[in-house]
Design brief:
single chain; mainly alpha; 74% helix; elongated
């Protein structure tokens, strides 16, 4: 009997030891897994925090760059608009109500304008450059020209060019305002790009593409910028198609007239965006 009790007692003790051992092993496994998960979680947290800090830093740098660019852009716009206005005032000082204005753009003002344009060109997109190119064109056309007759260079009445720039000024200012987030008139951009387009197809002489244009888009005897824009808007389909043909011709020609090719391409790109109904109808 004692032998039986001894066996039972030993069995119970063994079972208890096995149960305790299993519990101990299970607890150790839990602790080990929890520790491993805690380490991984901490590692993930560290990695995530590092990424968050990296993103935060990139955003701060991006915001700083944007802020600096915005400030430079705003200063560039202010400097260019101010210089154009100053040139007009200086230019008009030579105006005589009876005789007109037979003086070209003031040379010192023109040089300062060109210097500002070169200095700030980084902050000017295609729309701004197109508008400023029209200003440059008016300045250039005001200069005396040599007709190769042996006579002194001929000086036209420059009042028409001052008026041309006066037409451009509020539209240029409106485009600039739009670039810095201030409310602007979208029609002003349309006016500028249409004017650029009609000037381009009337300013160069290429028989292959029939420029300067004849017919309804010809502006040979028109100096007023508003009238040129009105003609362009009334015949937008023809204007866009003519500019496309001119762009294709200049591209095939190997780009030897780089400035013309660049102006035509820039103007066409924007014209097709702002006049989608007219410009896409021929495609």
């Amino acid at each position: 009997m004692e032998y039986v009790f001894s066996i039972l007692s030993g069995g119970v003790s063994g079972a208890a030891l096995v149960w305790l051992a299993k519990g101990w092993i299970s607890e150790r496994l839990k602790q080990s897994i929890q520790h491993e998960y805690a380490e991984k979680l901490e590692s993930y947290k560290t990695e995530l925090n590092s990424k968050i800090e990296g993103i935060r830093h990139e955003n701060q740098v991006s915001q700083l760059r944007t802020s600096l660019f915005f400030e430079h852009q705003r200063d560039a716009f202010a400097a260019l608009i101010t210089k154009i206005a100053q040139i007009n005032i200086e230019w008009m000082a030579y105006y005589d109500p009876n005789d007109g204005l037979y003086e070209p753009v003031p040379s010192s003002g023109q040089r300062e304008f060109e210097s500002l344009l070169s200095q700030h060109q980084l902050f000017l997109d295609e729309e701004c450059l197109i508008a400023l190119s029209l200003v440059r064109g008016a300045y250039f056309r005001s200069l005396p020209y040599d007709d190769r007759s042996g006579e002194p260079p001929h000086q036209n009445d420059s009042r028409q060019y001052v008026s041309y720039i006066e037409y451009l000024q509020p539209r240029l200012a409106s485009i600039f305002r739009g670039k810095i987030g201030v409310e602007s008139d979208p029609q002003h951009l349309i006016d500028i790009v249409v004017l650029s387009a009609i000037e381009l197809v009337n300013s160069y002489s290429f028989l292959s593409v029939e420029t300067p244009l004849k017919g309804i888009l010809s502006t040979q005897n028109i100096n007023n910028a508003a009238n040129k824009v009105a003609i362009g808007l009334e015949n937008a389909d023809d204007l866009v198609e003519s500019l496309r043909s001119f762009d294709e011709y200049l591209s095939r020609d190997g780009g030897w007239i780089h400035e013309a090719q660049l102006k035509v391409k820039q103007t066409l790109n924007i014209l097709e965006k702002i006049l989608p109904n007219q410009s896409n109808r021929t495609q």
